[in-house]
Amino acid sequence: MGFEILRDLRDLHVQVIHAPDAEGLGLVEHVQRIGCTVEAAWPIPDGLAVTADLVLLAIDHDSRDRLRRLLRAADRIPPTLIAIVGYENPSILQLVLEAGAHAVVERPIRPFGLLTQMTLARALWLEQQETRRRVLKLERKLSGLHKIQRAKAILMDTHGMTEDQAYQAIRRQAMTKRMGMEELASAIVSANDLLNSARRSG
User: Which of 97, 124, 125, 174 is the most buried (most CB within 10 A)?
Assistant: First the structure.
């Protein structure tokens, strides 16, 4: 995985949110030398670039309010984020935590170590996304099992079936209709809810 991340770094779109001073310009040039596509932004924009895979974000007290607006504006899975800080104190560390930073680069920014931080941050971000995918998959599976349980209960109640008979009925119908058991179970539950609603309103 490590070699793949290093190779893929060259294909990343990096947004550098830093004042265009000597340090900021040097940072942009160094990221470009790594091979990334770079977009510089200052002052702090209202939102992160849609194309950004990785963001290098300068964090300081003076820009606290704009930083918080920027982070609240995210309407997608946040990209890999590296915080750039000049000093450590509780309020700066709080902003770093709020930003969800995957790594931290200290000022003065030195070219040495930046590639390492980008690689580690990207590896952490990829692990987080894989964990997120697994959790969503498990949640969908649990939701599907819950729907099947409800559908079985409906068939047992309305047709006097045993639990196994209800399960086999759902399984057979799903195969006949060439659909998943969870999908068929959802249809059974929805139809039952609709009938119950119609009876109550009638």
Answer: 125
Tens of pLDDT along 139-154? Answer: 989 988 999 999 999 9
Q: Which two tokens stand for residue 18?
A: 């830093």
The conformation of residue 84, written as its DSSP 8-state character, comes to E
What separation in angstroms does the CA of 144 have from each of 23, 43, 56, 161, 181? Answer: 53, 47, 40, 21, 8
Q: Distance from first CA to last CA of the chain, Å, rounded?
A: 62
Measure the CA–CA gap between 12 and 118, rounded to whole angstroms. 11
- Indicate the DSSP class of residue 102: S
% helix, strand, coil for the chain, step of 5: 60, 15, 25
Q: Model's pTM, two decimal places?
A: 0.74
Name the pairing type of β-strands 13-17 and 80-85.
unpaired
2-129 folds as Rossmann fold (3.40.50)
CB 102 within 8 A of CB 75: no
Question: Within 10 Å of residue 148's Cβ, how many Cβ atoms?
Answer: 23
